[in-house]
Amino acid sequence: MDIQPKINSLQIGKIKTIFLQYFATYLDDCMARLEFEFGLQLGKERDRLSKEQYKKLTDYLHTAKKIISEQYLLKISTAFDELQQQTPTKKTEQIQWNAAKLLDDEFVKEDYAVSQIIRSCENQFLEELSEFNQQLALLLGKQVMSSGQNPVSPENLLRTLFEVFKPLKLNTEYRVALYNVFAANIFSQLGFIYRELKIHCTKDTAEQNFTLENDYTENKPTNIHSAPPLASNVFEPLRQKFRLWRTKHSPSAYDVLVDNGNLAYEHIEIINALQVLSYAGLNKVAPVYELPLKHPLLKKLAALNFSDETRQLDQVDQDILDIVALIFAQLGQDENLPNPVKLAIAPLQMPMAAVALVQPDLLAFPESPVRQLLDKLYAVGSLVNEDSTGGQTIIQQIVGVVNKITDSGFEIAAWVAADNAFAKYLTAQQHGVQRYEEHYRQLLASSETPLADNEEVAMIVASRLNNKALPATIRDFLQQAWLQVLLAVYPHKNEQPELWAKHLQTLDDLIFSVLPPSDEQAKQRILTILPELINALRYGLKQIDFDKVDRARFFKELAVLHVLVLDKKSAANVQTNENNPSQSPADAVIDSYIAVVQQLPEGSWLEFIADSGQRWGKLACKSPVMQRLLFVDKSGEKLREYAIAELAELIRSGQARRVNVNQQPITERILENLTP
Predict the structure, then answer these.
(1) Concatenated DSSP letters for 125-165?
(2) Domain covering 590-659 in this structure, CATH number
(3) Looking only at Cα atoms, what is the longest distance across the chain?
(4) Could you give the CA distance from residue 438 to residue 341 in angstroms, rounded to a whole number?
(5) What are the sequence ranges of the domains in the chain?
(6) Per-residue confidence (pLDDT) for residue 329, from 0 to 100
(7) 138-151 pLDDT, tens per residue?
């Protein structure tokens, strides 16, 4: 008689939940960036597609995203269920990789790509996977367990993904690119997920982690209306500090209401009124209110009071409500928080006030789930570009968290659960940002590789571009196309010195021709050199087989620039310093801004202001050779590259400014730095 091993179904169910939480977070992030990531993974194949073909392809992927995500999570969940039921995976359902290789060359390509991903993951996360397999085996009542039996091993995750991709109408190159998107965004994080699962597989640690919510609720009534404070004598110092602040800023809407000696409202009445206000959508009107929360709350309490007695708010309750109102008023005034994020976070004011009334120490305790969650929401939502794909994803995540809390009945348990869940999202989001930033750094580094092979050419290009406020078209052309012309002739410069000198003169003439002339003589020189300059440019580009379409576009843009430069009104606006013709006052000013840009450390945040609106960017890296700066947005996506002189001009004209980013948690900044 066979003895079935004892299975710890409860723990396996928890592992399934934890894995799906982490995995779904990375999957959602991947789906949000799918079209962008797919283009990166296509590489040169993308260049072979026309604009219409590529748009049609990405539109198809956009429509398939939801199905891919839902089917993938469903199949993984089913695999966990089969594991608990000791249901072996049918052989016919497995992908017979070796046999499949005999089908055709196209399948071999796909097989090879998938095998490479599996091998890479298994090698990279061998230790984490082995330890997790051992822990999972114990929960299944087994001595050992192979990776093939683990439903979330790299191989099985790829098998599942293969089944999900089956219905997609994509050729081999596109399917391989899609696998690589998942490898870069999701499978690369499996080591982290396995480590987290291993922790939860350990019984004592699992109990500690899964009873976090019970630390606040297990030994106290689950009803928020009667729960005692988290700790004693913690809130009182904060309260006294706030009262001093209130006195200093009196008169204000935060002043204590007149005490008429009436009975105070009970907490259950106040919380009920807060819920009514929340459901009525008061928070959705604006992130900042003209009056602190206690004023509309009193009106609602009076409307809900059907007795003849006049009631009032207790002074301690007023202090709690005012502290919460002050926190959200400060959030509403924060310049680094975009309006959609302010509106998304604002509805938390009611549930935060509700839990704080019963457990006021939640406001004073920095590690409380209430403050922790608010700190995380601010950290991820600040400096977000609302019009970007990544920014919209972040805002949607914040809205989802807030909705869960406002719909929960204002229970502290909802804050605990939301804080834990959002911490997982934040970890995944930060991993994605780091990976994207590194990707763009590598791209920028690879773009200067030709220069690194020839220091003289690098110095020549850098010296001629330095401190020149050139149009982006010209700067890009010199750093890319004309750089290749110089590199092509450099090895033969001793045999052909005239040609080398001609290309250098062309570089200088091009720069001179697009800068506003300082006087009539300079203007005349531009007119004189233009015919020969155009011929020299055409000759040089021909030597490197420069793309005909790009060449035509460049000369068209160059013609426009020359028309603007030679315009009489534009030329008349150029001011010169007769006493010091080598450097005009305008040059001295721009030099000072160039020095500011050169001293910007990596990681600096800048605000860019244009007609289309406000955008934030972080300086991800500098190119010392190319004299360029790479900026990314909050989600790690590339915002733009700027030449040093170009960014200096933006700062000088007020179109860009450095942003002061305070790393201190927002609730700590507001409450602990509260001074009269």
Answers:
(1) THHHHHHHHHHHHHHTT-S---GGG-TTSHHHHHHHHHHHH
(2) 2.30.30.140
(3) 106
(4) 27
(5) 9-210, 221-439, 471-514+517-573, 590-659
(6) 93
(7) 888 787 778 888 99
